Amino acid sequence: xxxxxxxxxxxxxxxxxxxxxxxxxxxxxxxxxxxxxxxxxxxxxxxxxxxxxxxxxxxxxxxxxxxxxxxxxxxxxxxxxxxxxxxxxxxxxxxxxxxxxxxxxxxxxxxxxxxxxxxxxxxxxxxxxxxxxxxxxxxxxxxxxxxxxxxxxxxxxxxxxxxxxxxxxxxxxxxxxxxxxxxxxxxxxxxxxxxxxxxxxxxxxxxxxxxxxxxxxxxxxxxxxxxxxxxxxxxxxxxxxxxxxxxxxxxxxxxxxxxxxxxxxxxxxxxxxxxxxxxxxxxxxxxxxxxxxxxxxxxxxxxxxxxxxxxxxxxxxxxxxxxxxxxxxxxxxxxxxxxxxxxxxxxxxxxxxxxxxxxxxxxxxxxxxxxxxxxxxxxxxxxxxxxxxxxxxxxxxxxxxxxxxxxxxxxxxxxxxxxxxxxxxxxxxxxxxxxxxxxxxxxxxxxxxx
Length: 450
Known about the structure:
Elements (H helix, E strand, L loop, with lengths): L13 H17 L4 E17 L2 E19 L2 E7 L4 H17 L31 H16 L5 E20 L4 E19 L2 E11 L8 H14 L9 E7 L1 H14 L2 H5 L20 E3 L22 E5 L2 E2 L6 H6 L14 E3 L6 H8 L2 E8 L9 E12 L2 E14 H6 L1 E4 L9 E2 L3 E9 L2
Parallel strand pairs: 7-12, 11-16
Antiparallel strand pairs: 1-2, 1-4, 2-3, 4-5, 5-6, 7-17, 8-9, 8-11, 9-10, 12-13, 13-14, 14-17, 15-17
């Protein structure tokens, strides 16, 4: 491979990135690989944090990297580097080939099936750069924090406000002749503050995130929201241990749905390390529950035209009428389970939980009496048994109205039982993350307190 000049990552064009991937694949073939795949990524961005009216950090990042996986028959080797020169490419491919020669054969190893490649790359409108100078980012962060600190005299301290803007480009190619490219932006604004009164101290936060800078919530809103959430948590009480109805607020409910997808991953299935083993077609949720994936959502925070193996992503039903429809499969786990990849190497993208027509207030009225969980702590999930136990904080509800904040409690149960205990999904959908869901109401959940 002819030596090419070193190109600064900030000036790499899409064509140059694609040529680099093609060079890597050609080098792998020249060094004896029977098949190969390569990925190249370039990312640049600006992040600023302020605290108590002072600038804490201003960070510019300019990152690049490439990775190559080669196959010598059914032997596999991988290597990576951040050096894009031809010499570095040769050395990286050589390292991957050396590793492959000494690994054990694996009958399931190999590229994803050629017929599954994303031959058409849709424009998902993911790239919206933000012409944000460091001075502008500082001003925006200060405005956010000031709005929080001025909201209430009980806001006594701050963990800071942050503004970030990042742009990335990714190219993947393999020996099937596939080379695909897409680029995107991610922007965010966040704030965390501390409140104090005679009852003690509490902290809370708020953030806004979008591909499009003009779709971010205002700095004033983010700051006030963070402060409001903090003040509402002051004078929290403990609860006696009891079995009660629980509403998981929209911004924490996604973690429950995420646990479902973790249990449905192909790796967990073929290793038999999941509480949802061999459950396709089984009723996991109540019949009204519908969960689907929309990886081609325009401007979606997790949209992508293909997965990490070049397999075309597509809309997919995961839960239909409460029943499990698919496992989450990449090509390796699919072969282990004698199935076909679902285009989910790297996980699911833009999951939507179908909501009902009740907003959060109506959901509280429907619950009548019980607990609203607004924060969860720890990672207390046994994936093999489904046993679930996590620290929590939130609010106690009586007669359909929030009465007072609560803290130092634990929500516990078994996820299979908890999924079936879902009674309603609110219309207050949180669209900031990968899982789009409203608040989730469950009946008969164990809450451990005093």
